[in-house]
């Protein structure tokens, strides 16, 4: 049964497959966006642009400095805010984000939403690694905070991100301005509403460990396990429920990877497999009841061969089990890059 309790995890699930787990030589990205059931989520194209030096950019709550050039992007976003739940750019970078609560306090003051950070990274990055640098740099300068829903009662959280390009993927998990990242060069990975990076840390905030030690969360001795150190000691019900959903997502990926042997050099994960996982209701990955529901879904194929186009499939409607994934080829993004900067082309 789908998770329908008011305390059910109020966010999403992201998945990625990197060869040899993928059935084809491509990185495959997928995400369900779980949002308030009455919220409108739209698919929006934003063309590439050039910007005046020193100009400012209005995000959902605050302004940031604009960069000189931005990439064309396709976004699936709640209509009331500037950022996005998931999206891709013309350089073959895809990003999705998740809500997370940690020992670091969540700020209700207006700052950058995780969805703002996601869109900024897509507009400014040519690779997943560069997107990681963009997000962490903005996080250090502006912080994250503010209500993440259009409602009088605030709903605030920190964020984790899954960033992918044609060659690799990164998991980026944050706690306030602090963060840890894990590079995924092969295999399959998923994230949900919990910290999941343990001791396998590829990059981290310079003050991550000293801060944890100063707070008494880590002794400074032995391995440093980010998820163990920064996760809440007593988890809210919604995060306990997210553990089961995260585990179910991991098992669904593992079931599809296939046995990698000398006679079988490719896994079994395809775009269709990812769509099937996003439609899975038994695990709660596809939420069709309760205050939060799966309001939009996305699957992207990012071929390792740079001469082949990326293709992005979006539902633009709730409940992926009852709708089709409409394709948006990479060539469409390149076409948009040549349109006037005032144009927002909606729908694939």
Please describe the topology of this protein.
Blueprint: E1 13-18, E2 26-36, E3 41-46, E4 49-50, E5 56-58, E6 63-65, E7 69-70, E8 73-78, E9 86-89, E10 94-100, H1 114-124, H2 128-142, E11 158-164, E12 169-175, E13 178-184, E14 187-191, E15 203-204, H3 208-214, H4 226-230, H5 237-257, H6 271-278, E16 292-303, E17 311-314, E18 326-329, H7 330-336, E19 345-346
Antiparallel strand pairs: 1-2, 1-14, 2-16, 3-8, 3-19, 4-7, 5-6, 8-9, 9-10, 10-11, 11-12, 12-13, 13-15, 16-17, 17-18
Low-confidence stretches: 1-9, 335-348
- What is the number of helices? 7
Question: What's the total number of strands?
Answer: 19
Structure class? alpha+beta
3D architecture notes:
With 348 residues, the chain is α+β, with helices and mostly antiparallel strands. Helix content is 21%, strand content 29%. Strands 15-13-12-11-10-9-8-3-19 form a 9-stranded antiparallel β-sheet, with helices on one face. A 6-stranded antiparallel β-sheet has the order 14-1-2-16-17-18. A hairpin with a 2-residue loop joins strand 12 (169-175) and strand 13. The chain is globular and about 50 Å long. Mean pLDDT is 89; it is low at 1-9 and 335-348.
What is this structure, in a nutshell?
With 348 residues, this protein is α+β, with helices and mostly antiparallel strands. 21% of the residues lie in helices and 29% in strands. The relative contact order is 0.22.
What key phrases describe this protein's structure?
348 residues; 7 helices; disordered N terminus; disordered C terminus
């Amino acid at each position: 049964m789908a998770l329908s309790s008011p305390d059910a995890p109020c966010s999403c699930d992201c998945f990625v497959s990197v060869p040899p787990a993928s059935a084809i030589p491509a990185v495959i990205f997928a995400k369900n966006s779980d949002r308030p059931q009455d919220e409108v989520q739209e698919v929006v194209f934003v063309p590439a642009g050039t910007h005046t030096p020193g100009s400012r950019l209005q995000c959902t709550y605050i302004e940031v400095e604009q960069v000189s050039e931005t990439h064309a992007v396709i976004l699936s976003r709640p209509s009331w805010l500037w950022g996005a739940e998931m999206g891709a750019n013309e350089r073959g970078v895809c990003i999705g984000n998740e809500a997370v609560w940690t020992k670091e306090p969540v700020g209700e003051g207006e700052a950058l939403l995780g969805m703002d950070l996601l869109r900024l990274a897509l507009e400014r990055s040519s690779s997943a690694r560069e997107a990681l640098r963009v997000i962490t740099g903005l996080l250090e300068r502006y912080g994250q905070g503010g209500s993440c829903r259009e409602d009088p009662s605030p709903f605030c959280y920190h964020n984790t991100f899954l960033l992918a390009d044609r060659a690799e993927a990164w998991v980026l998990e944050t706690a306030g301005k602090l963060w840890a990242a894990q590079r995924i060069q092969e295999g399959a990975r998923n994230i949900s509403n919990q910290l999941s990076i343990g001791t396998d840390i590829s990059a981290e905030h310079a003050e991550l460990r000293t801060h944890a030690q100063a707070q008494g969360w880590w002794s400074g001795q032995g391995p440093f396990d980010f998820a163990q150190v920064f996760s809440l000691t007593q988890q809210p019900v919604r995060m306990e429920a997210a553990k089961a959903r995260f585990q179910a997502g991991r098992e669904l990926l593992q079931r599809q990877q296939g046995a990698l042997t000398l006679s079988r050099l490719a896994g079994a994960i395809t775009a269709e497999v990812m769509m099937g996982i996003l439609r899975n209701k038994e695990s709660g990955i596809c939420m069709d009841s309760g205050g939060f529901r799966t309001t939009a879904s996305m699957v992207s194929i990012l071929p390792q061969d740079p001469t082949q186009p990326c293709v992005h499939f979006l539902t633009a409607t709730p409940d992926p089990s009852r709708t089709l994934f409409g394709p948006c080829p990479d060539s469409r993004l390149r076409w948009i890059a040549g349109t006037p900067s005032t144009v927002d082309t909606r729908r694939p």
